[in-house]
Structure formats: structure tokens, C-alpha cells
Write a structure and sequence with these properties.
The protein is about 50% helix and about 10% strand. The chain is α/β, with parallel strands linked by helices. It folds into 2 domains: about 170 residues, Rossmann fold; about 90 residues, N-(1-d-carboxylethyl)-l-norvaline Dehydrogenase, domain 2. It has an 8-stranded mixed β-sheet, with helices on both faces.
Amino acid sequence: MTVRITSAPAARTAGPARITTVAVVGTGVIGAGWTALFLARGLDVVATDPAPGAEDRLRAGVAAHWPALVRLGLAEGASQDRLSFTADAGAAVAAADFVQENGPEREDVKHRLFGLLDEATRPEVILASSSSGLLPSDIARGCPKHPERVVVGHPFNPPHVIPLVEVVPGRETSPEVVDRAVAFYTAVGKRPIRLRHEVPGHVANRLQAALWQEAYSLVERGIATVADIDAAIANGPGLRWAVLGPFANQHLSGGEGGLAHVLRHLGPPTEAWWRDLRRVHLTPHLAETLVAGVDAELAGTDPAKLAAARDAVLDRLLAAKAAQPDLP
């Protein structure tokens, strides 16, 4: 995986048209991260958001992200000056070569928004949604003219730093559109994975949800505190997960026998643990307990400094991973 791209050319898709201008629709936390990344890759960005003060917040967010992107390596021509803003979504996407949508996670809102995008963009322009869990087929119902160009391109926060993007096709998405989306995200330094079938929550959020279910249950049952569980992951398996995925880590833990050895010897007890995992309901009491636990764990911590420290470690981790040719 290559994450440090220095003096890189502007991104291109695998299709016939060069991508030089990206429209970012919705400029909250995710939209601001995408905007900063696209600018850092030497692209022009036209951003749009109807919220009062959105432009000022976006420009401040991009400026805050810029030092991290400088450390990761800017492409030739990268500049914050290549950002323009309009509250008119139709005008924002009219000349775009690629659209990254980051609106609210509500199907009715997506339908209205994608109906507008369907009308205002050229028919070959990919309409990618950052949706963290909605099905692209459902989103595409708002695109009656060209549903074949709708795809989910779900990043992980912060999107200007974390390489992963999940590319999810809907029932009517053209394979060529998926190929072009994967090529574009790769060109801007992301590590895309291509889902073969759509599923609510995609892949990474479903994996996270499985962990959260048991973590919440352990807190609810009084087995461990919020701080204990965070420490268990951050100082244990989370360190290995940051380098290799669950299957590769399991394989290495099996020694010479690899994954086959692990499945033979630890498979039966693992199945017993699965049967003991608990379903949990996010009751008001449990929610209060979780929030209180995080407050206690992070008491006296400045959230901005905590996020900056996290991102600084991520910078170094990504650089270290990029320098290791033997990692997949």
C-alpha cells in the first residue's frame, strides 16, 4: 500500500475522462476531510452545503487538516486556493468530473439530493456517497435517469488520513463505474476494497458493530469498565489489527501450521465463546453508563489534543507501513 505520494499528478479514472474537478456535497466532518484530501492531491474542489456558516467552517477545517497532509506528501499543484464554495448544489456539481456526497444518513434526504445531482451532472459522472450504512440500491432510487453511476464510497474518519474506502455497488451500478471509482480512490492515495454485494453497514462498520455489541454487553454485565475495554483493545489486539487484518493475524499466530493449525486447535473453544456472546439493547441506562465511563476515562483530557495525538500516531504508523514492502 502506498500512502506517501509526493509530486503526484492529478488523479485520473480508468474511464475516458480525466478527473480534475471534484464536487464535495455536504461539508461536515467527513466532507471537510474529503475536501482536504482532494486538494492535497492537486485537484480542484467545488464544495457545497446549505448550512449557515458552512464555508467558513470548511475552510477552517481544511486549514487544520493541511499540516497532516503536508507530512503525508502533497501532490504537484496541491493548494488550498483551489477550493471554491457555493450554497447552490446544482451549480457546484455542474462542471464536476466526480461527485462525493456526504449528506445526512437519511434515505429521504439522499433521494432528494441525488435527484438534484442526477439532473445537474453530466451522465458519465460518478455519484459516490459516503454513506456509512445505507444500501446504494436504495440511494439510487433518487436517481431515475442514471442509477448505473451511483456507488457508495465510504471512508473512515478522519478521511484525509485513514486510507480505507469501501466501494459498494448497487443492483443497477455498472461494473465500469465501480472500476472507475476504485481507480480514482487509488489514485488519490486511498486503499479501496470492492464489495461483491451490498449489505447494510458494508464491511468495516459491521465488524465494528460486532465488537461494540460485546463491549457494551461486558460493561452492562459489570465484567469490565469502559476504560478497561479500551485499554484491552488499544494495548492488545488493536496494535496487531493496525498492521494486519484478522485472518492474517490468526495465520501468523498459528506458527508453522498457520491458520489451519489455529482452526483445528482453537476453533472449538472459539465456537463456545460465540455461543456465550450476549445480545445487548442500547437502553437509556446503558447509554448513560457508557457515556459516564468515557467521561471518567478521559477526565481532564483536551479532546482536540487527544485527536491531534491520535492523528500524529496514525501519520507515523502509515509511514512505517508504507516503508515495509512485505506487508500486504
